[in-house]
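During the first year of the project, the team set up a workflow for recording each protein of interest as an amino acid sequence followed immediately by a discrete structure-token representation. This format lets reviewers and collaborators read both layers of information side by side without switching files. As required by the reporting guidelines, we include two representative entries from the current panel. The first entry is reproduced here exactly as it appears in our internal archive.
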Amino acid sequence: MMITFSLRILVTVVWFALSVASMTCPVKAAFSFVPTTQASLAPMLERVLPTVVSIVVQGQNGSPPDTNASDSLPQQFSALSGDAGQQRGFVAAGAGVIIDAANGYILTNNHVIQNGDTIEVILNDGRTFQAQLVGNDAETDLAVIKIAADHLTALPFGDSSKLRVGDYVVAIGNPFGLGQTATMGIVSALGRSGLGSGYENYVQTDASINPGNSGGPLVGLDGKLVGISSAIIGPNGGNVGIGFAIPAAMAKQITEQLVAYGEVRRVQLGVVVQDLTPNLAKAFRIDIQSGAVVNQILSGSVAEGAGVAVGDIITAINGASVENAARLKNIMSAMSPDTSAKLSMIRHGSPLTITARLSMEGNARQTQIAGVGHLDSVILSDFETISGMGNKKADGALVLAVGEDSGAADAGLAADDVILSVNQQVVHSPEEVLELVHQSPSGSLLLGIYRDGGMYFLAIQ
């Protein structure tokens, strides 16, 4: 009895002490989901939502936007436009963001508007407009469209280079054609590549994004654009918390060219490179652990003229770090003709800097087109006709170079081969090769090639 009474007194005293402490010293929350003084994201979203548009594309010819690109990456990798039609006639939904209010320019994904006969834009205030295509680039999956409208609001570009894993972001789009929707998450990873598309430097996020989010903005808590939602990994194209956005820095550079020229005018350095691995660094007797190793230089290229040599290790371009071969490709993709590229390199263990002047005329004597996906280590060129095939003549894509230790090299593809078909579909140019590679499942790629007077098939895994 005495023990019970003492326990009651102890509990009462502790309760009273905690009550007084809570009144005099407010207890801080164990965690704050949003590290900001505001209690809600609503004020930021009220500024951002008027800049986001829904896009409805209709077409009769060709295929609809690629909503389920393949069943694997390695399992599922899907573009995000919401498809509601068939090949002979389709209606697809996506999103976009106003980047220039005065001129009505809207940034979105190329796969949202591809093959569309009409592009309808629905503003946040309910107004609808027919849009015109300004320019598009399949390699980065970006496009700019234009509407004639007043009272628009543009979203400012943020600095995606300052993003860190763990930063909070908000994805806004038109999932499943439901209308404008905002979801929140964090930056899960940076610099993602190897997804089988063209120029890759994705921001990965777990913000919930679904089919129909393509082209919509990914914004930071300051309400500035840090990415364009582009793809997801998930069963049947659904969200499992793994989404990818094109970083704003890349989008801004590409947008400037699309607005100016209607296309991206790329220059080629003219090198075939591979990642610097720890084993290669040890063999080169250097201390650095990242870079792009030059293993081939194309004749007549910018690199050859500037004095780049086989075995050079490129570590930076114009001060931007080159961590690997994919990073070099991305940096070069955003550079314009008539500019200079300051190459920071290691040669025979010593640092070296070379400046190369970039121009369309300064490319190799043959037009060079960098491969993507299964052909990401391959450089292609136009090839007009091939004689010696009986009474037939054919055109295709000439292979200028194949990177060592690549899947294409392992399959037997070599320089001077001519690609005549991709997955049993005849091709007539490097551009057609890349288009079919983009559409190819992530399993194997079947190439029909011409070599030494004969036709052969190669399967690249």
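The second entry, processed by the same pipeline in the following quarter, appears below.
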Amino acid sequence: MKKIIVLTSALFCLMFSYADTAIIDLQKKLHSIADNESASVVFISTEKTVKRSQQSFDPFEFFFNGRPGQEGQIPQQEFKQTGLGSGVVYSKKGNDYFIITNNHVIEGADTVKVTVDGRKSYDATIIGGDNLVDVAVLKLTTKDNLTLAKIGDSSVLRTADLVVAIGNPFGLSHSITFGIISALGRGDIDRSKPGFTNFIQTDAAINPGNSGGPLLNIEGEVVGINTMIYSQSGGSIGIGFAIPVNIAKNISEQLINKGKIEHGWIGITFQEMDKEKLEKLGIKTAESGMLVLQVVKDGPADKAGLKTGDVIVKIDKSELVKSNDLTVIIGNSSPGTKLPFTFIRDKSTIMKYVTIGVRDEAVVAKQGRGESDSSDKSAPDRYGLSLSESREGVVVNEVIPRSKAEQAGIRKGDIIYKVNNNVIKTISDFSSQTKDEKELFYFFINRNGETIIVMM
């Protein structure tokens, strides 16, 4: 019995000794980051001129003429607006140092100052910025030896990895916080922009002023650029987001070497599909994919042979589950790159190489205005359609104003030739295939020789 007690006591001692050693090792790594990597993080302060117009109030004019008087207007006045943020010293060429930060930190700034190691300040110039990814690059010239950051690889990150955030929250320079990666691949954080970033979510405290600063792994390598938080108070509640460093590095290299950004583009609009939606199209060989709704004529996808109705399931070796999976790959691919696309067409799996083109915002805007053409009307009353029959399908003769069909984008003259995976030849076919009022249908439409897909 005594032997068992002694053995158990020894085992507990060994366990506690191991735990103590692990904690000590972790503490040493955190100290190393504070001592060695913190110097590569800079404080950024900006100043820009904003104009505001002020108008005096004339009570006589208001009460007798019903509006404030125009004569009392004061000309626009100029004000200086300051901002702050963080950045990381990324690379060096000669006496030029390049600093990565967020685009929103320096956007519109007239002057930018960079403070290094909390001591010395330098004037910096803006090399350029990318509003779509929220990355910008600054340049400062000095003969001083500045500490360069160690750049890691964000593609090898895993949920629950230990991370450290360094920055200047509320102007408190070189503040360090510690946490884990809460999630990876957050693609729907900023819906006002195309999804070119799969954000890293972390519970390491990030506050105003941290923007543009690094998120580091436990080895002191930069794996992300802190960019935003979820908060109702304006302060950290443990939900922060960082741009993966591989994406930030790609943007920064383009700005440093070319002075401009070129995002990839293939010329399609598409819909994220899950297993249930795919089964409606008669596809049972895939769990997820992207349904091609429209193909831009003479665009990269069109030239490669992709067609409306194809379901893209894989690009290179990456399976597509969320819509962001496609946009991140395409948006961050260099124009001219050839990528293998695997897709399903008529239940057959096909692979074709697509040569990535250059994203042109004017073309994308035009494409977007025509992308959500949807319509449907099982019976003309339900969707606001007047239909007739033709050899190609059912023809839309009229679209009732403010109807579901009009809101979906259906136009007079459209020919609906397929619903889900079912060919439509008559109005009776159309009605029978759309009889379930609660179900979402995919309508294949011929519009002036171009095929589009509408959902309703």
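For the second entry, the following points were noted during internal review. Residues 369-378 have pLDDT under 50 and may be disordered. The first strand starts at residue 41 and ends at 55. Both points are flagged for discussion at the upcoming steering committee meeting.
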